[in-house]
Amino acid sequence: MTPDTGHRMRSPETWDAARQAYMEGGGARDICDRYDLTLSAFRARARREGWRRADMADPEPPELDDVDDDHSPRPSFEDMAEMAARRAARALRQGRAGETQRWMAVHDRLIRQSRAEERAELVAKAVEDLGDTRRIRAIGDAARQIHREAVESTRELHQLHQLHRASSEPTPPDPDSPAPPLSRAERRRLDKLRRKR
Q1: Residue 176 has what pLDDT?
Q2: Is the dihedral angle over the CA atoms 37, 42, 44, 50 positive or is it negative?
Q3: Cα-Cα end-to-end distance for the chain
Q4: What whole-number distance in Å separates Cα of residue 165 and Cα of residue 159?
Q5: What pLDDT is stored for residue 177 in this prediction?
Q6: Which residues of 164-176 are buried (b: 16+ CB within 10 A; e: fewer)?
Q7: Going by C-beta distance under 8 Å and a sequence separation of 6 or more, which residues neighbour residue 191?
């Protein structure tokens, strides 16, 4: 009985499906997860066989009639937040902390947007029920609230961009953390300097 070395042979059909998914714009990690391939084997085969998206013909631009958003309903902010939470959970299971953090930031932002949308609907309903004078005041109050939320949203979006940038850059050393222990050579050099004084 031979030990399992972890080497797995995949059928040509599997590699063809993986290549097709990659050429259609799929991410390498997602494709490897879907077809149970290792990332290194996938990249080696892609390099060896010349799987380059740049060599693909550009897709035809969609007809303007095909881009009619009136017929396709927009998902609610709650639905999009749920999708972001599922993607954050998947990234967490795969050990991708930076991606998890970014998806959670998107989730939080979508939840806040959903709540703001609900408040705006309540304000609009209340405005319909008020008289003219109070309606004008309520509209002004609602406009100020929406403006504050828009400013806050812009600030949060900027922070999200900073988070994305910060998660892809190496973190600088913390000045408050203790210094790493000295090597033997460094200790000897410091002892020599102390003896000379």
Answers
A1: 67
A2: positive
A3: 69
A4: 10
A5: 66
A6: eeeeeeeeeeeee
A7: none
DSSP codes of every residue in the chain:
-PPP-S-----HHHHHHHHHHHHTT--HHHHHHHHT--HHHHHHHHHHHT--GGGSPPPPPPPGGGG-TTSSPPPPHHHHHHHHHHHHHHHHHTT-HHHHHHHHHHHHHHHHHHHHHHHHHHHHHHHHHS-HHHHHHHHHHHHHHHHHHHHHHHHHHHHHHHHHHHHHSPPPPPTTSPPPPPPHHHHHHHHHHHHH-
Position 53 scores a pLDDT of 73
pLDDT along the chain (197 residues), means of 10: 60 90 84 88 89 71 56 79 90 83 89 85 72 69 82 77 59 64 85 83
Residue labelled with tokens 């210094």: 179
How much is the pLDDT for 1?
Answer: 42
Answer for the pair 35, 10: CB distance below 8 angstroms, yes or no. yes
To 10 degrees, what angle do helices 77-93 and 97-129 make? 170
Contact residues for 190 (Cβ-Cβ < 8 A; gap 6+): 182
The residue to which tokens 């059909």 are assigned: 13
Residue 50 has phi, psi (to 5 degrees) of: 75, 45
- Contacting residues for 130 by C-beta, under 8 A, at least 6 apart: 138
